[in-house]
């Protein structure tokens, strides 16, 4: 940068001397400094000499600095002017800044450091202004070339003045797309643009170009979709790609250069896909709501059926009455299996099917499972065998519950589809050792009715069964068991496959990866409690179904608890106003006030009971993962229909933690 020449307009000799001295000490290469006392003298000097900067005192003889500033800006708009004021003249300084001054300084505050900063800022602004002017000149030189290219382009090309809302330039492609001849629409007026922009996109159109004007940088490409109006009244979708083309003197985007293509066909396809997605989401929501309702409506009466059946089975019935009760329990358990299949499938689809990961004794878990199936196999005289290879680790890390679910489905199917006198064989081998993890291969083989080769490719699909004829339909099932098994296997990063021939039996192979467990592992044994003593405890139970109330009363009386039964959440709150309780059993869905609302009120308005454990009783298996219910921070969940031992474990867990001094005894 060449030395900076300065014109100082100041009628006070002392002030002029002080300023000159400060300028000379600034860390900038200063050239000539000229001083004028009067405005007329300064204007005459500017006729023959152009300084790099002007320092202008506001208070001058005959005229004030504001008038001189306006005159200077008319002659040389880009010449930097710094105003000098007396102390307390900030209002005057603001007026000068509005008139075009670069900055202002109270005379008493001028020093070389401030002047150095001001000179650097001024230098940067001059460089920016110089660059802008050069860019404008370059654009003007290339305008003719661009026009020639644009007229031959197959895409729409245009330049819009977004200050005056006029179309400065366009090629002929837009008229072909809109069905007009190029002379039918006047696009150089506001009315012309309004005629071709769809009414629903007028606001979008204005908002978009307001953003372009104030916020978009040079060379920044902005894409936007608009609807135009075809001559026949139909919609034409275009996508534009635009950049700032020209800026005004204040640096705001004045003209925009853009290209556009017709995307009407694509938008129609997109809208069809969006509608299809909405229809699918609505169908999923309806299905989820239906399943949630179905879960509640079926599980609620089943809770009473299974609960009272268990009570009667333990009441000493013999003979035919015992057989009747066993038949009721068997039918209820089968119905629950079918319902759980449907709900598990829906949970997997909804992404709410979680996996655990902890150490467990693999042989012990599988051993318990095999003992469960031995009874069913013995009833059909099936040779049921289990073998676990010596190289299989004793302790593994993973989800034993989901492994159990996979094995129950596969072994259950094998026994179901194997005729009397056949065999079912379960083997577990080490497939591959990865160091910290192992792949275990589990085979479930049977001598059953088998699967035809044309069905092997579909047996893992939802609601699909390998046997659909009348001879095999009596085996029953939802057609979801194998589908759920495959989905669980995939969630565990495993694989499942099947080999079979019709009439020759089947072999299902599952490969699952588990972590290696610690050699010091010791699993806590928690045998199912036979009886529970809640003597000395007060329990508040909320349940609106009469049969379930009777069941709860019987169990709580059996466990020697003091208790109050409520029909809804409102009664719960009324009871809490007068009594203290050690534990609350809260049904989720109740009339008048549901359990969620009651829980929120307890936490917000009943501080005395805020830390009382609350166990949620629910027939909705989706409840625990529902955000609103999860936010209530229930102490635990017991899903209906529940067995007595499940409720015992839940109650004992929280009462032992809450009040160990009362000695809740499990024996």
UniProtKB/TrEMBL annotation:
This is histidine kinase. The keyword NAD does not apply. The keyword Coiled coil applies. The modification 4-aspartylphosphate is found at residues 57, 587. Residues 123-152 form a coiled coil. Its EC number is 2.7.13.3. It catalyses: ATP + protein L-histidine = ADP + protein N-phospho-L-histidine. Residues 222-275 form the PAC domain. SUPFAM superfamilies: ATPase domain of HSP90 chaperone/DNA topoisomerase II/histidine kinase (SSF55874), CheY-like (SSF52172), Homodimeric domain of signal transducing histidine kinase (SSF47384), PYP-like sensor domain (PAS domain) (SSF55785). InterPro entries: CheY-like_superfamily, HATPase_C_sf, HATPase_dom, His_kinase_dom, HisK_dim/P_dom, HisK_dim/P_sf, PAC, PAS. It holds the Pfam family PAS_3. It comes from the Bacteria. CDD domains: HATPase_EvgS-ArcB-TorS-like, HisKA, PAS, REC, REC_hyHK_CKI1_RcsC-like. Keywords: Coiled coil, Phosphoprotein, Two-component regulatory system. It is an enzyme of class 2 (transferase). Residues 5-122, 538-655 form the Response regulatory domain. Residues 293-516 form the Histidine kinase domain.
């Amino acid at each position: 940068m060449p030395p900076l020449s300065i014109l100082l307009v100041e009628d006070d000799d002392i002030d002029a001397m002080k300023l000159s001295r400060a300028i000379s000490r600034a860390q900038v290469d200063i050239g000539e400094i000229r001083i004028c006392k009067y405005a007329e003298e300064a204007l005459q000097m500017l006729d023959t000499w152009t300084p790099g900067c002007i320092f202008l005192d506001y208070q001058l003889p005959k005229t004030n600095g504001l008038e001189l500033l306006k005159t200077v800006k008319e002659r040389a708009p880009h010449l930097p002017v710094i105003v000098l004021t007396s102390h307390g003249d900030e209002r005057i300084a603001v007026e000068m800044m509005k008139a075009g001054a670069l900055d202002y300084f109270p005379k008493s505050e001028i020093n070389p450091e401030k002047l150095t900063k001001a000179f650097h800022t001024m230098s940067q602004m001059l460089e920016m202004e110089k660059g802008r002017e050069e860019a404008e000149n370059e654009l003007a030189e290339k305008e003719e070339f661009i026009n020639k290219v644009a007229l031959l382009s197959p895409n729409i090309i245009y330049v819009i003045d977004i200050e005056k809302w006029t179309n400065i330039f366009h090629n002929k492609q837009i008229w072909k797309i809109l069905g007009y001849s190029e002379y039918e629409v006047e696009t150089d007026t506001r009315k012309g643009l309004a005629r071709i922009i769809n009414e629903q996109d007028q606001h979008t159109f204005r908002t978009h170009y307001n953003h372009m004007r104030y916020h978009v940088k040079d060379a920044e490409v902005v894409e936007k979709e608009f609807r135009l109006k075809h001559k026949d009244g139909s919609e034409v979708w275009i996508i534009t790609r635009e950049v700032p083309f020209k800026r005004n003197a204040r640096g705001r985007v004045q003209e925009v250069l853009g290209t556009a293509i017709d995307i009407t066909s694509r938008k129609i396809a997109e809208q069809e896909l969006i509608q299809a997605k909405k229809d699918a989401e609505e169908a999923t929501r309806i299905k989820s709501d239906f399943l949630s309702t179905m879960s509640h409506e079926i599980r609620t009466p089943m809770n009473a059926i299974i609960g009272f059946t268990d009570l009667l089975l333990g009441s000493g019935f013999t003979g035919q009455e015992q057989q009747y009760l066993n038949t009721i329990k068997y039918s209820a358990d089968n119905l629950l299996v079918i319902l759980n299949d449907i709900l598990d499938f829906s949970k997997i689809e909804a992404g709410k099917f979680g996996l655990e990961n902890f150490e467990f004794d693999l042989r012990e878990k599988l051993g318990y499972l095999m003992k469960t199936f031995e009874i069913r196999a013995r009833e059909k005289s099936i040779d049921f065998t289990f073998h676990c290879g010596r190289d299989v680790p004793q302790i593994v890390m993973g989800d034993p519950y989901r492994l159990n679910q996979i094995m129950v489905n596969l072994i259950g199917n094998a026994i179901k589809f194997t005729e009397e006198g056949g065999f079912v064989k379960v083997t577990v081998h080490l497939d591959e050792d990865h160091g910290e993890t192992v792949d275990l291969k589990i085979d479930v083989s049977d001598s059953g009715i088998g699967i035809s080769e044309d069905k092997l490719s579909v047996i893992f699909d939802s609601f699909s069964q390998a046997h659909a004829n009348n001879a095999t339909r009596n085996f029953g099932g939802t057609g979801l068991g194998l589908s759920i098994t495959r989905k669980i296997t995939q969630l565990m990063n495993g694989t499942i496959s099947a080999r079979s021939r019709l009439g020759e039996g089947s072999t299902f192979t599952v490969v699952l990866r588990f972590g290696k467990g610690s050699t010091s592992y010791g699993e806590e044994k928690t045998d199912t409690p036979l009886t529970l003593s809640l003597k000395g405890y007060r329990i508040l139970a909320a349940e609106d179904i009469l049969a379930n109330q009777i069941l709860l009363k019987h169990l709580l009386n059996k466990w020697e608890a003091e208790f109050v039964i409520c029909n809804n959440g409102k009664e719960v709150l009324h009871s809490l106003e007068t009594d203290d309780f050690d534990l609350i059993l809260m049904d989720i869905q109740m009339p008048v006030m549901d359990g969620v609302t009651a829980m929120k009120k307890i936490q917000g308005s009943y501080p005395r009971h805020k830390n009382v454990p609350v166990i949620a009783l629910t027939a909705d298996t989706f409840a625990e993962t529902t955000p609103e219910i999860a936010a209530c921070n229930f102490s635990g969940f017991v899903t209906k229909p529940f067995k007595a031992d499940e409720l015992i474990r839940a109650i004992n867990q929280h009462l032992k933690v809450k009040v160990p001094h009362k000695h809740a005894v499990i024996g």
